[in-house]
Design brief:
The protein contains nine helices and 19 strands. The chain has two domains: about 90-270, no CATH class; about 275-305 and about 325-420, Immunoglobulin-like (Sandwich). Helix 3 packs across helix 6, helix 6 (about 200-215) runs parallel beside helix 9 (about 250-265) and helix 7 packs across helix 9 (about 250-265). It is of the alpha+beta class. The relative contact order is 0.10.
């Protein structure tokens, strides 16, 4: 797993330096160690042969003037396979990248679904659970081999040994653990009404939504073997271990299933109180405002709506490209009804966020060329008034699953209404 900005150059440099230092030490016959985990150098232990002034051992047969007795060839003892401990510099680089990926995703997408302003948790980062100066959460010290979100102090932290052991098995480990703990920080920001009773499994779902959402944004690249590593990590966390229990974290199958819910369907599937419906269904807010979404079919479309795609050169018409030859868009009808006793400005509800595919890629939003001026914006709705507008989204022909998130009536208090379903074939 890699950050799309290319943090691998830092890793390559760290590996090159580590290999050069190790070769110099071996050539000099030096076994070096330095206190502090990040300064450790890989070495071997052993007892060098003793020597005399003559340069040979007293037990040397040549010195005694006798022929050596034949000795049986010893049977080699099988060496157990041990995962190599990670390079400290690479691990620190990976941790920093994973923190940026989690925070970056929630910074970009908080207002896609939730009102108000997103604020990240504090990052305490690595701690040594076996040291005498363990961080405190409330009145309790953090335990070894664990990772935490601490609600009283609003910080996230992870034990050094937990990260070293997990990272030795695969470089997706820091991303999984950090995205999960960030999920707990998100739960604290959403409040009890939007937090599942099985909060550990919900954090897995939010982790899946964040990691694969970051990949959809082009901020994270999944490499060969990464998905297998993620599944293995979730399985390990779901087993009975010193730091997890299936009673509170769920078993392996439950953890993978909830992570997949977020991976395949995004944030909306992770939040029980979020407005979530299918095509043609109606979602009603406590204020009495209701909304529904229905796909109408496909149309050839023109220029993108402002702010949703790169504008064409002034005076030119967007032309067909090999990746988008026909400029065909799915047309959605969005209907809002004002069931409140007061007039309501529904303009913002006409700016949906539309995603497609299992990775939740952002679709280009376009105007419906067949819609009149009055059918492109809700404006102000009187009590009891209902109005429908149409909006298009450019979705690749081979993609069928689409999610339309309509902003809530009150951007400071209401979350988005999300509608997901399958499209008819073209």
């Amino acid at each position: 797993m890699a950050n799309s900005q290319g943090s691998w150059s830092h890793r390559l440099l760290a590996v090159s330096v580590a290999v050069l230092v190790a070769l110099l030490l071996v050539a000099a016959g030096i076994w070096a160690s330095q206190s502090g985990w990040i300064a450790e150098l890989a070495g071997a232990t052993g007892t060098p042969p003793s020597s005399s002034a003559g340069g040979s051992s007293p037990s040397d047969p040549a010195r005694a003037g006798t022929s050596p007795s034949p000795t049986p060839t010893p049977t080699p003892t099988p060496t157990p396979t041990v995962s190599p401990m990670p390079d400290p510099a690479l691990l620190l680089d990976e941790l920093e990248t994973a923190e940026g990926i989690a925070n970056g995703f929630w910074t970009r997408h908080w207002n896609d679904y939730f009102p108000g302003k997103y604020s990240p948790p504090k990052v305490l980062g690595l701690y040594d659970g076996n040291s005498s100066s363990v961080p405190i959460c409330g009145t309790k010290p953090l335990s070894a081999n664990n990772a935490y979100y601490c609600p009283p102090a609003d910080y996230v932290a992870w034990d050094l040994n937990l990260m070293k052991k997990g990272y030795a098995e695969g470089n997706t480990w820091p991303y999984l653990v950090i995205a999960h703990e960030w999920g707990h920080a998100i739960q604290a920001r959403l409040g009890a009404s939007l937090t599942e009773k099985a909060d550990e499994l919900q954090a897995d779902c939010l982790a899946g939504a964040a990691l694969y959402g970051a990949a959809a944004d082009g901020e994270l690249v999944f490499e060969t073997g990464d998905q297998k590593e993620l599944a293995s990590g979730l399985s390990e966390l779901g087993d009975e271990t010193p730091w997890t229990s299936s009673a509170d974290h769920g078993d392996s199958f439950e953890r993978i299933r909830h992570f997949d819910e977020g991976r395949l369907h995004g944030i909306a599937r992770c939040i029980p109180g979020m407005k979530f419906g299918g095509w043609g269904g109606t979602l009603v807010y406590s204020s009495g405002i209701s909304v529904s979404v229905l796909p109408l079919g496909y149309r050839d479309v023109g220029s993108p709506m402002p702010g949703t795609a790169a504008p064409a050169t002034p005076g030119t018409t967007p032309s067909a490209t090999p990746t988008n030859p026909a400029r065909v868009a799915v047309i959605f009808e969005i209907t809002v009804k004002n069931g409140s006793p007061s007039a309501f400005d529904a303009t913002d509800m006409g700016q949906p966020i539309i995603r497609y595919g299992e990775r939740g890629l952002l679709a280009e939003t376009v105007a419906d060329p067949a819609a009149g001026r009055d059918s492109s914006s809700f404006g102000t709705l009187k009590p009891g008034q209902s109005k429908s507008i149409t909006v298009g989204a450019v979705v690749p022909p081979n993609e069928r699953t689409v999610c339309v998130a309509v902003p809530g009536p009150n951007p400071d208090a209401d979350w988005s209404a999300s509608f997901e379903g399958e499209l008819n074939p073209r």
